[in-house]
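Good morning C.,

I know you're traveling, so I'll keep this short. The sequence:
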Amino acid sequence: MARTEELTDIPTSDVDQVIEDYESEGAQVEKIQQPNGKWTIKATFP
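The tokens, ready to paste straight into the viewer:
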């Protein structure tokens, strides 16, 4: 069963590092820009 984690209000300066961290753990990562200019990161683990 897949597990999903969601982080919100990630500043642009941190997005790439957060994505790299999740991908290194085997997650599929989606990033969504929020209206306030920050990002939501959704990581799905198999």
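Safe travels,
E.
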